[in-house]
Amino acid sequence: MLSDNKPIVTFSKLENWTDNESINRVISLIEENLELFKQKYCIPKNETDLNQNFALCMNSRAKDELFGFSNEYKDIIKATPHKVDFGIVPDGETDAFFVIEAKRLNNGLGKPREKEYLVGKIGGIERFKNQKHGGDLTYVGMIGYVQTDNFDTWFTKINSWIEEEIVAPTSDDLIWEKQDKLKFNTKSKLFNTYLSQHQCKIKDISMYHIWIDLQ
Q1: Residues with Cβ < 8 Å from 149, sequence gap 6 or more?
Q2: CB 159 within 8 A of CB 116
Q3: For labeling, which of 10, 24, 82, 97 is most exposed (least CB within 10 Å)?
């Protein structure tokens, strides 16, 4: 269990998203150190290397915290075969209390991968909805590495793809609704954040999205 001594971090438009002090602290730590990540850790352009460096960056800043970032985390206790990009794990334990999937937002990925933030073989949000990621967790996260275009362009694109899934879903196992669409939360020059709600197979989840401009 994490310490009760750290203050609860509040966000301007995050009220009622979660009262979990530990998750709020993780989000705050990430947002506080995105400038450092962009300056010193984002030289690689491929997702695997970016994720490794992201974990290294955040762990370097989490030395005084009671949790760490596990890159390519797999839930060994529940014996799931799928790895999520980051598991946030309390010190001395192995079970993550928060997980995050990261995707490149890049219009040069090609047709088979253009919607992978949302759906596809390695689709981000889809993997949470079908519970390949997240297990029993109610609150989860997504990171978007913005490598082309801008925040507004990707916000419009992804919500339009969700609209397409509502009308004609690519998977018969999943239900897409208006609530799946991203809602604007906070804005800055370096990063934007969004919120979304999703119906999974046997539960509902709340998702916190952090997009960082790496251009």
Answers
A1: 105, 107
A2: no
A3: 10
